[in-house]
Amino acid sequence: MTEMVGRVLGTRESTPLEFWVGVGEGEFLQLDDVVALERVLPTGEVVRMFGTVGQVVARHEGARFDSDVFLIEDGILPAEVSEAAQVTATRFEPEIFVPPRPGQPVRIAEAEEREQALFFDRMDRRVPVGLARNGAPLWVNFEFVNGDRGAHVNISGISGVATKTSYATFLLHSLFTSGVLGQAAINTKALIFNVKGEDLLHLDRVNSRLDDAERSRYADLGLPSTPFTSVGLYAPPRIDDPRATADVATRPDVTSFFWSIHEFCDQDLLPFLFADAEDDRAQYTTVVYNVMAQLRHAEPTETGAAVIDGVKVRTFRELADVITERVQSDEHRHRWAGPAIGTGTINAFVRRLQASVRHLGRLIRSDVPDPDRHRIDLDGHQVTVVDLHNLNDRAKRFVVGVTLRKAFEEKEKAGQSEELLMVVLDELNKYAPREGTSPIKEILLDIAERGRSLGVILFGAQQTASEVERRIIANSSIRVVGRLDSAEAAREEYGFLPSVHRQRATIVKPGTMILSQPEIPVPLVLEFPFPAWATRAAEAVRPLDGAGPKDPFEDL
After folding, report:
1. Across the chain, what does the average pLDDT equal?
2. How many other C-beta atoms lie within 10 A of the C-beta of residue 466?
3. Where are the domains of the chain?
4. Is the sign of the CA dihedral 253, 258, 260, 263 positive or negative?
5. Nearest by Cα to 424 from 168, 135, 149
6. CATH superfamily of 130-234+376-541
7. Rounded CA separation 63/76 (Å)
8. Strand 189-194 to strand 383-387: parallel, antiparallel, or no bridges (unpaired)?
9. Distance CA 533, CA 226 (A)
10. ∠ CA 54-56-57 to the nearest 5 degrees?
11. Mean pLDDT of 460-486
């Protein structure tokens, strides 16, 4: 048991939820310290109380005016410096909710007491999520991640400062290497959408900037300081490249992906071309679904092309032209566009369809041999990275929507399983905005509300949670914030943070996060280690085992 650091104050009210501690001479308390004390009841029963420090104040006792500080320091006025810490109660054992009595000694909770104070002792399966200010590990109950009692992680913060993606990949690393998955780790998968630069295309490479101090932090968490070992990399083809070479500059072993014309028709992918949030309010959505019904009759060819209404189609440009001709011609208009559809509505549909050709042409095609090699395959690797950074927003929505729908449908067919599919998606506000509806938003809502029962876990991230569909945020058991804009921090979406933590969120440095989980009544302020995997090409070191082809330009 540690020595006393202070006593419960009698000049401020104590409640079972909150009390103040006077800090003893030569001692100090800082934010996030965990403290413990006991109270003996009149019955003789001992109640053990635990809490965390949420605020610390210092003042001169005896000073009346602001200018008295100068007289006190000069020895003219008598005064004493006092420090006091505000403590938020976290746990009572047994659960008899009485306030601490003034004068009771308070100590720092360490070892088993700290585990009890933060409910870590009740977590049968726990995942390391970072380090406290004193270097001790912090944990999350895996049952609130895997769907047993809750699921999904939501991360908010300013772009480039809040390290949202870095923390999401750290959580994945922790889940895969901490042993919490058990036998299910073999078939547990992660799907990451890379939306900024080529940063996530080097997860399987050692980070050259990782030093011994950072390696020791991984060791403190019981984790290896190693990159991801099984990574599949996919990127869109280069524009107008007949060989469909992946549009990536920093490594050559990336597989390009696209969908064949027949897949586009057979799998009902047309609505994802019109996946803006306002589209469901547009009248031309009727045309979209009528055309989609006609495309289902397309006949496949050996190369993945399709014969549509007697016309062989190999490229998306040809497909768009066939659809345009059918919905505008008097002969086919009724069947393809639908009865009683006005010319203005049809023209609006055609404008959007033709505008998408420029951005989607490289993603929907049947002019490349062996199209099966260019399908996104989640089964081949533990982690699959789908690069989107070179695509415009419409193409990004298409890829995200189509890929998520296929992954979710496959999990539905497989049924309930301990083998999880974890989806990391940044810029969530673009795909599931608060207002409007779209096919992608419906899929994300389905994942948020039903995914936990199927083992589909969403790691969503965004700059502003206030712009994301409320039901997705509400269904996230684990909520994390990095650096926040002061105006955003004041929004109701961050009501799970006490006022002090909201203030701290506006000044935290990169690498510091504030995490809230259902089992602990106060948020945890944590730091996580520097990535052990390369976050950009300049940091990348080839795998230690020499696996994978060497980039001929990586040493230049």
Report:
1. 91
2. 18
3. 4-117, 130-234+376-541, 261-360
4. positive
5. 168
6. P-loop containing nucleotide triphosphate hydrolases (3.40.50.300)
7. 12
8. parallel
9. 7
10. 145
11. 95
